[in-house]
Amino acid sequence: MAVRPEGAAEVRTARVLASVPWVVVLLGVCVLVALLVVALLSFRTRERGDGPRAAPPVFLPTVPAAVSPTGGPTPAGVERRTVSPRPSRSGRTPSPRVATASPSATRVSAPAVAPTPARTVSARYEVGTDGRDGTEAVLSVTNSTSQAVEWRVELAFDDDMWALRVSDDSGVSVWGRGDGEFVVRGTRSLAPGDTRTLRLRLGWGESGTRPLRCTVNGVSCRLG
Predict the structure, then answer these.
(1) Between the CA atoms of 192, 194, 199 and 203, what dihedral angle is there, to the nearest 10 degrees?
(2) Where do the H-state alpha helices sit in the chain?
(3) Fewer Cβ atoms within 10 Å of its own Cβ: the N or the C terminal residue of the chain?
């Protein structure tokens, strides 16, 4: 059995005691490093979880380049306003109006009475008898107005009627147009309410011939 010397044991103990502080220091340093790493990891985790979220990217709208009247593009930054024409009053659509019938509008108006035509100059032609000894035709002209007027009678017979004579030709003119047409005209005005009576002979005494047309101042005569 080997026996260790007494001095050797003391030296070993002294060495162990001398190395113990360094071991403690080294362990302390390792613990601090570990704590530092854990603190850093926890801080980064909190920073990522609790930090504000990033806002979505904002894209600014781009204005397309407008074509200017001169043909070149207009810068996008310049705003061009166009004045819209005001609607004219004539172009406005009128709103429909509901017509309400008033009591006075439903009344039936009395028919208008046609005015009585003013009385003018009138004439009447009465046929006589045929033959040389027959009675003469009578032409009466009456002025129904309130003032003196001039009168003119136009007579039309067959084409073979070539003559017309007036028994009392004072104040009367007679002329033929041909083809059986004659004009009897007063040379003096006819007084208001007055009547002029003329006796007519046709051809060689054919007073019984009825005229085809008889007018006085454009108004038809009465035939009898």
Answers:
(1) 10
(2) 6-50
(3) N
